[in-house]
Write a structure and sequence with these properties.
This protein is α+β, with helices and mostly antiparallel strands and 504 residues long. It has a domain of 64 residues: DNA Methylphosphotriester Repair Domain (3-Layer(aba) Sandwich). The chain is built from 26 helices and eleven strands. The strands form three sheets. The protein has a five-stranded antiparallel beta sheet with strand order 5-9-8-7-6. Strands 3-1-2-4 form a four-stranded mixed beta sheet. It has a two-stranded antiparallel sheet with strand order 10-11. Strand 1 and strand 2 form a beta hairpin. The radius of gyration is 23 Å and the shape is globular.
């Protein structure tokens, strides 16, 4: 992706956090590449090379800065990329898609040839898919060496390397030092004190602002009993795919000795059970999706303000479009919640998990079940689902959905082609445009999804028909999902109660 050198250098000199993760700077005099918010002295413009991705910087021979740690930079929201295919591939690779699959298999899952995929990724990011995957593995390994007490062998395994030998060779080739040397340089007391089998704690950065209390309120209102809960200022959840385990998410304010350090945005702290170690890359990707940490709320707010939806960009207040840890479970809940309240949908979902899920003994009293997989539901009978208190039509829709996900005719993978997935969803019985668009917002992570038939959205726009609302919402593109979340959040309570889709 082409970058304007002058604009990048101005952002670098200003240490503007809005550009954190948008570009990286390689300093030729040191051989190190940094985030634009690095606290090191600003290099001379003549010594700077700018890259859109860490992999491109590393391909050019630069090593990651040990101070600003490029592996912590926020990622890119889907609309930040000029090529949708490259963005979907990059998202999948960041979640570990090439840890166990080949480039050919990834390309097939995206509906293109391997040659086409390689060209798209190289044109967008300046690297091959394999180089991109290697960079993600090395950066995750670097994080684990910095932030965990895991033995180096487990770090290699968690980062997606097939062997310790390959990990050591790749690490030394890229960073010119071995993993144990880096760990000694970054040693903190917790490296020596954490017992074997301890939980893994990692920090996740984001572009500010972040409405953490608002996120917790949203997730708490829709929590499935036994699978997830909000307790105090923390979110707890179990995960069943790709491996069973649990996690805790909290928000931590930035600490520092100076006022400038304390004014920086906080971080999300993810504590993961040791059972999730083999699936660390996809789990961390899902956590980022759940909290929408790769969004740029300032940019979105400015665009929606210019479009007339907001009086001022700050009205968005750091709101996000929450994702999900379990895309299949989200669609099931959405179907169960058609024409009922949020509370009613949660009650039906609790019965569904109790009937079809499996028992789990979590460290928190609220975690007692694992979400059933699509394979489990595909084998169930519609009568069994209907017995939970749902209509026969919705029971059959859930069974049809499970079978479609299992056979690959419907993709719920975050970053999947939204148009194709929406078309496949509405082709199933009992699923209409509202459900498909809502799923695209939260599960597929498509920022331009928009359920134009929603009663609350139509009322907020002055009683427009769905067709009229779609025309009206053209000005909000490509952020219509954020526009919908804002209108739902600010809608008067009576509207929410009377909405035909109140389970949102």
């Amino acid at each position: 992706m082409p970058l304007d050198r002058s604009a990048c250098f101005r952002a670098l000199a200003a240490r503007d956090r809005r550009f954190d993760g948008v570009f990286f700077v390689g300093v030729t005099s040191t051989g190190v590449y940094c985030r634009p918010v690095c606290t090191s002295r600003t290099p001379r413009a003549a010594n700077c090379r700018f890259f859109s991705h860490p992999a491109a910087a590393e391909r050019s021979g630069f090593r990651p800065c040990l101070r600003c740690r490029p592996e912590l930079a926020p990622g890119h929201a889907p609309v930040d990329a000029s090529a949708a295919l490259a963005e979907r591939a990059a998202r999948a690779i960041a979640a570990g898609a090439l840890n166990e699959r080949s480039v050919e298999e990834l390309a097939s899952s995206l509906g293109v040839t391997a040659r086409h995929l390689r060209r798209a990724v190289d044109a967008q990011l300046g690297v091959s898919p394999i180089e991109l995957a290697t960079t993600h593995r090395l950066l995750l390994a670097k994080r684990l060496l910095h932030e965990s007490s895991l033995p180096v062998g487990q770090v290699a395994f968690a980062a997606g390397f097939a062997s310790l030998r390959r990990f050591n060779a790749a690490f030394h080739a890229q960073y010119r030092l071995n993993p144990t040397t880096l760990r000694r340089a970054a040693a903190t007391p917790h490296h020596a004190s954490a017992p074997p089998g301890a939980w893994i704690e990692l920090t996740l950065e984001y572009r500010p602002p972040l409405d953490w209390p608002g996120l917790l309120r949203y997730l708490a209102a829709r929590a499935t009993v036994g699978v997830e809960c909000v307790d105090g200022d923390a979110y707890y959840a179990t995960i069943n795919d790709p491996v069973p385990g649990e996690l805790v998410l909290t928000h931590r304010a930035r600490r520092g000795e100076t006022a400038a350090a304390r004014s920086m945005p906080g971080v999300v702290v993810a504590r993961l059970s040791p059972s999730l170690l083999p699936a660390l890359m996809p789990v961390l990707a899902r956590v980022r999706d759940l909290l929408d940490l790769d969004a740029d709320p300032r940019r979105i707010g400015q665009d929606l303000a210019r479009a007339g939806l907001l009086r001022h960009a700050s009205e968005l207040r750091g709101a996000r479009v929450p994702g999900t840890l379990d895309p299949f479970g989200l669609v099931v809940r959405t179907i169960l919640g058609q024409q009922v309240s949020v509370k009613g949908a949660s009650s039906l979902m609790a019965r569904f998990v109790e009937r079809f899920g499996t028992a789990y003994e979590g460290t928190h009293a609220g975690l007692t079940r694992l979400m059933p997989s699509c394979r489990t539901i595909a084998r169930a009978r519609a009568d069994d689902v209907a017995a939970l208190g749902v209509t026969r039509v919705r029971a059959e829709a859930i069974i049809a959905l499970a079978r479609a996900v299992c056979d690959g005719s419907v993709s719920l993978t975050p970053g999947a082609d939204a148009t194709r997935s929406i078309r496949a969803l509405v082709a199933l019985p009992g699923i209409g445009d509202w459900t498909a668009q809502y799923v695209a917002m939260r599960a597929l992570r498509w920022p331009d999804a928009f359920p134009a038939g929603d009663l609350v959205l139509r009322r907020a726009a002055g009683g427009l028909t769905p067709t009229q609302l779609l025309r009206h919402a053209e000005a909000w593109r490509p952020w219509r999902a954020y526009a919908a979340m804002h209108l739902w959040r600010t809608a008067p309570a009576p509207q929410m109660r009377n909405s035909s889709n109140a389970s949102r």
